[in-house]
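Many introductory courses stop at the sequence. We go one step further.
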Amino acid sequence: MSKQIIHTDNAPKAVGTYSQAVKVGNTVYVSGQIGLDPTTMTLRDGFNAQARQVFDNLEAIIEQAGGTLSDVVKFNVSLTDLNDFNELNTIFEERLTAPYPARAAVQVAALPKGAVVEIEAIVAL
């Protein structure tokens, strides 16, 4: 089965040796997104702004692949502070509708570029 690289200018360019997403069959694997503004490539200020930008970035990539946020089957979330979990849940509720996808959330020591949240997604088209 061949793989297709997914790229959009509406999400930050990869800052390393990875693709924004890879599609294999009807499954899209979206690389972890942090709260970088795709135009300026600067990190948004604060948890809420970064988390909202992360969702904007994920949505742009998923749309480029032919899907929507409702096609996500699994989110993997990394937070530098689990105390932000409740605020993140509020943003998830604003951006998603039931039935919700599976999700894992872990606290990590640090994230690229000093980000406070990173989310990756698996999408079934």
